[in-house]
Amino acid sequence: MFAHIFVNRFKCLVRDKTVMFWTLMFPIVLSSLFGLAFGNLASSDMFNKVNIAVINNAGYRSNTGFQAALSAVADTGYSEENSLFHVRLSTYEQANDWLKNNQIAGYIVINGGAHLVVRESGINQTIIKEFLDDYAQKNSAIATITKQNPNVGPMLMKNASESHNYLKEVSPTRGKPDKTLNYYYALVAMACLFGSFRGMNEVSAVQAYLSPQGARVNLAPMHKLKIFRYSLCAAAVVHLLSILILVAYLNLVLKVDFGNDLLYILLACVVGSMTGIMMGALIGTLIKKGENVRIAVLVSTSMILSFLAGLMVVDMKYIITHTIPAMAYINPANLITDAFYSLYYYDTYSRFFTNIGILCGITAVFFLIVYFVLRRQRYAGI
Amino acid sequence: MQVYKVYFKLMKQNLPAILIYVCIFLFITIMLTYFYGQKTSPGFNQTRSNIAFINNDQGTVLTEGLRDYLNQNANIINIPNDQDSLQDALFFRKVEYIVKVPAGFSQSFMNGKNDVQIEKTTVQNSVSSVQLDFLINRYLSTVNLYAQNMPDITDSELIGYVNNDANHSSKVQVKSYGKTADRKAANYYTFLVYAMIVIIFLGVSSIMMVFNDTDLRRRNLGSPLKSFSMNMQLFLGNLSFALTVWTIMVVLGFLITGKAAFDLNSILLYVNLLCLTFVCLSLSFLIGSFIGSRDMQQATANVLSLGLCFLSGVFVPQQLLGRTINFIASFTPTYWYVKAVHDIEKLVVVNTANVTPIINSMLIQIGFVIALMTVALAITRQNRVST
């Protein structure tokens, strides 16, 4: 009997285009969009040149050192690819006007020291300030050295303009901490939770008042919960397959790092998809309103949970972790995200198993609730 | 006005589902406005990143100097120096950057050998990592400059000089020109794109699905009501719905920003949102005519909203998206909406040069509305002929 129900249910599920879309196509489309949006974060294409103005006063004209430092980072030539600033020389009034009209991010006044006039704080303004600080500190160092040791000549200027990297990147763990990876893991979590469509459909299929199949199943000389269990198995297998396709797509096409432990990745997928399916079954059992409302609740629950796990904006995940730690431990989307992240990140598996353990617990609780609501239901009228 | 009345009867039926979406997406928008708003830009009130400083080269002047220097520019969080605690600190983002000074670093560095390097562990692709790399390298470069050019200097003298240099930071003057940008409002109106697309799309397409049903349409075409009148009533229905959503959002904006503002900037924001409302309306009208089932409706709503939001700079700021993506995004109306919100946020002096780009962005949105409506009407016409 198991084989019969399983095989037929399997066929039904694979042919269900809508749910296939939600669990497979939608995450793939979304992840491709992530790939587009984040592919750029690591590349040099990221920065546009910052427009700035320098007040062309006596202070600037006499300060050849600053002129040299500025021309090193300005796009004076046409081919300056790595320059930071687009510099214009101007008068006070002109610069003020530009600043008011947002044509420049800020302007620099050389009056003894260099100082910066801006309208707001922001990334571009910070870049200008860092440049000026760097210049001021180097200048101060050069001044001190020439005062103490007047014999140093051109070597000093040469040394001063050299830039070194004194840092070595090491990772305390297998994977380097990475912000963008979280988006992809949260996406897998979302796909897992979309398994709730399958769970809800399985509940509808055995509830006589929800679907004609349900009515028919209730007449069959077989234990209803047995049928439910068997078809849940089919749903789990189909859902797992689509999650695996998604993970394969992320890993092979978008080059998302999932760590190397295939077996554990598989385990995370299995547990994650079971949680999703049971969540759907729970919503399907508890909400007795029409299909519209139930789908709305399903989609919004999955979206909100994924949102809190950092699907749209990754900082949200850490805001929740720091402000409401308990929420981070009961949000299935967050747990699935963390499970994948800890596989990527840690050398050990204790954090991974904590997450998987809690997920299993949540799934079991969902299952028990569904079981006790579904059992022994009788219908006086449909 | 039978059709108009039916429109709202149908809307009433769909209200529970739509209300759920309204609540959910507003929840997301409000969370983002409240929590995320302040964190987007490291400014002069310089955001100080949380870092860990592990010193295995205790007692040298150089490392102490470096530590003090970093302490001025970042928050040093004390974390036990063992593998597990460090891993966990990064995992939960208690810190975003770990500096580890290996034993013997000072000696090697001062001798100019540089064979012992400072080890860093950072969160990839974060602003704080770039900033801290820069700070540490700057400090060490300055030390190196002294060491190379003043060979006889003692270590403590050297660090004294370097610390003195490090205090030379340039002054920043912030000119407000009488008005400060309201970042909260700008954030609310940016993140609102997500909610607007979903809510208007679901509302409009739910009704469209009913009227586009083949049998029903045949029946309606046979009625004595002129098809022009019917379409106008439908159009009025859609318009009323969209304007209601717009009003609700603007009023919610009052609650979130804490004031009902009617200065020029705020009014421009409302008008801009109105343009977006029409964009969503025409987009829903066009796509709604292809939609046959509830499931497809949900699917389209989510792909459409998330896709447009990620591409046009709602979730990831436009300036981080790079030229290629921004170029692609400029073919979407939402890109122009978001751009207008940023321009309005920065607008303090009203003159042609400042207002023109904002008006242009709005006009481009209206252009999209006209284009989308034209296509939609052409398709409806085609559909009517074919059935």
Describe what is shown at a glance.
With about 375 residues, chain A is of the alpha/beta class. Helix content of chain A is about 65%, strand content about 5%.
Detail the topology: elements first, then pairings:
The complex is a heterodimer of chains A (382) and B (387).
Chain A: H1 2-15, H2 17-39, E1 50-55, H3 58-62, H4 64-73, E2 85-90, H5 92-100, E3 106-111, E4 113-118, H6 123-148, H7 154-161, E5 167-169, H8 179-193, H9 196-206, H10 212-219, H11 224-252, H12 262-286, H13 291-308, H14 315-323, H15 325-330, H16 332-345, H17 350-374
Parallel strand pairs in A: 1-2, 1-3
Antiparallel strand pairs in A: 3-4
Helix pairs in contact in A: 1-11, 2-8, 2-11, 8-11, 8-12, 8-13, 8-16, 9-11, 9-12, 11-12, 12-16, 12-17, 16-17
Chain B: H1 2-36, E1 50-55, H2 61-73, E2 75-76, H3 83-91, E3 97-101, H4 105-110, E4 118-122, H5 127-149, H6 155-166, E5 171-174, H7 183-212, H8 214-221, H9 227-257, H10 264-288, H11 294-311, H12 318-329, H13 333-346, H14 352-386
Parallel strand pairs in B: 1-2, 1-3
Antiparallel strand pairs in B: 3-4
Helix pairs in contact in B: 1-7, 1-9, 2-5, 2-6, 5-6, 7-9, 7-10, 7-11, 7-13, 9-10, 10-13, 10-14, 13-14
Greatest chain-chain contact = A-B, 101 and 106 residues
* Overall form of chain A: elongated
Strand-and-helix sequence of chain B, N→C? HEHEHEHEHHEHHHHHHHH
* Strand numbers in spatial order across the main sheet of chain B: 2-1-3-4
Distance between the termini of chain A: 28 Å
* Oligomeric state of shown chains: heterodimer
Query: What is the number of helices of chain A?
Result: 17
Strand order of the largest sheet of chain A: 2-1-3-4
Number of helices of chain B: 14
Query: Uncertain runs of chain B with pLDDT below 50, 5 residues or more?
Result: 39-43
Query: Could you say which structural class the secondary elements and strand pairing of chain A correspond to?
Result: alpha/beta
Beta-strand share of residues of chain B: 5-15%
Strand proportion of chain A, as a percent range, falls in 5-15%
What structural class do helix, strand and pairing data of chain B support? mainly alpha
Got a strand count of chain B? Answer: 5
What sort of overall outline of chain B do the alpha carbons produce when their principal axes are compared?
A: elongated
Taken together, the total number of domains of chain A comes to 2
The total beta strand count of chain A reads 5
**In percent, how helical is the residue content of chain A?**
55-70%
